[in-house]
Amino acid sequence: MKLWQKGAAAHEKVDAFTVGKDREYDLVLAQYDCEASMAHARMLGKIGLISANEAEQLCAVLSRLKIAAAAGDFTIEDEFEDMHSKIEHILTAELGDLGKKIHTARSRNDQVLVAMHLYLKQALKEVKADVVSLFDLLLELAEKHQKDLLPGYTHLQVAMPSSIGMWLSAYAESLIDDLYFWEAAYKMADQNPLGSAAGYGSSFPIDRELTTKLLQFDQLKVNAVAAQMSRGKLEKSTATALSSIGSSLAKLSMDICLYMGQDFDFISFPADLTTGSSIMPHKKNPDLYELVRGKCNGLQGLPNQLALLTTNLPSGYHRELQLAKGPIIEAVQELKACLEILLFSLPKLKVRKNITDQKKYDYLFSVDTLNAEVLAGKPFRDAYRELGEAIEAGNFTPNRAVEHTHLGSIGNLGLAEIRAKMEKLR
């Protein structure tokens, strides 16, 4: 069954190519299509296109289908093109001609648009909740390990003293920047496109303000053409937010992979969070973090993929826009999985003590030694030259008693200030 079918069916090869994996993705969106259809039915009842009783009959069936879809108990068989046709088929089978009235004053174009808006609103809320939880966890670990010194690197060369606390709180604060992108994506999703129909509105006297209120959108996407043009742009803005979060998670995971290696040996995890080798009995591989790194690096390509998909499309609907559905749904699922595995594993982080006591880290403290000379009154360039000569001659003796006091340094991480920044976003 196809909602657009008027006579002869499309060839099976055309059907397979045009539908693609849409049925699979529509299983994710079906509950939101039901939710939007309930609002649409109530609106049709209010403006008199159906009776109030008919609206409630439609909503009763749609509510049941929404619950089934949310529980994973909704199916879309091959004879149905998508969720819309399956839902309308059930309504018609149970309610007769009344079921055929649900499509009055709307198009599949605004149906899938509003379902995607509702889905991404909810998905973004869930992603944000996990990001905030990860932020809290990172700051908790940073506070616990703020006195555990760690080598800091530039160009992968030993540079200056850092700490486990500084390292972890840096990623916590980076997540705040990622949520700024999240805010933009959520604001775009929180607009109601329902009522734009095929992209040019309708001659029916529909009440778009009512559906906006019923669906709890913050505002209406007013212009019908603008609503249709948001298809693809909504997914791209969400992809930008997801990729920003993914960038932070990938970089953190790369650090973890390095720091777990025997050449660094800064941190470790219990054996049940690592994997082994089929031939090397000593191996404890950081597969979890390698996969987070890989998955999140993949997410960083998604905004460009969606940009290329929609580049130079004129206004109005085009079938390419269907291809934005799958990648964004899969990206949401991938990022949520990565956040969940980090939230599961990071509380079990083990930190090696006295890391920087090793002789190979002597030069970590050269800058602090130089700064002490300057504070004692020696010109910076003279102190720099003399210390450089001492290092080259092998006469440098490090003073490991570091004292950094400014806000954001290893001696004053500013965890309260970082928390205050996040409080504005919660």
Give structural attributes:
elongated; mainly alpha; 16 helices
User: What is the CATH topology classification name of the largest domain?
Assistant: Fumarase C, Chain A, domain 2
Order of helices and strands: HHHHHHEEHEHEHHEHHHEHHH
Estimated structural class: mainly alpha
Radius of gyration, in angstroms, nearest whole number: 28 Å
Highest CATH level, the class of the largest domain: Mainly Alpha
The outline comes out as: elongated
Give the strand order of the largest sheet, numbering strands 1, 2, ... along the chain.
Answer: 1-2
Helix count from the secondary structure assignment? 16
Task: Count the beta strands.
Answer: 6
Quote the average pLDDT. 94
Range of helix content: 55-70%
Distance between the termini: 45 Å
Low-confidence stretches: none
Number of structural domains: 2
Output the CATH homologous superfamily of the largest domain: Fumarase/aspartase (Central domain)
The name of the CATH architecture of the largest domain is: Up-down Bundle
| Relative strand content | under 5%
Sheet with most strands: 2 strands, antiparallel
Summed up, what is this model?
With about 425 residues, the chain is mainly alpha-helical.
Please outline the helices and strands.
Layout: H1 12-19, H2 22-47, H3 52-70, H4 83-95, H5 97-100, H6 108-144, E1 149-154, E2 157-163, H7 164-189, E3 191-192, H8 208-214, E4 219-220, H9 224-229, H10 233-260, E5 267-268, H11 287-299, H12 302-310, H13 325-345, E6 350-351, H14 366-375, H15 380-392, H16 415-423
Parallel strand pairs: 3-4
Antiparallel strand pairs: 1-2, 5-6
Helix pairs in contact: 2-3, 2-6, 2-8, 3-4, 6-7, 6-10, 6-13, 7-10, 7-16, 10-11, 10-12, 10-13, 11-13, 14-15
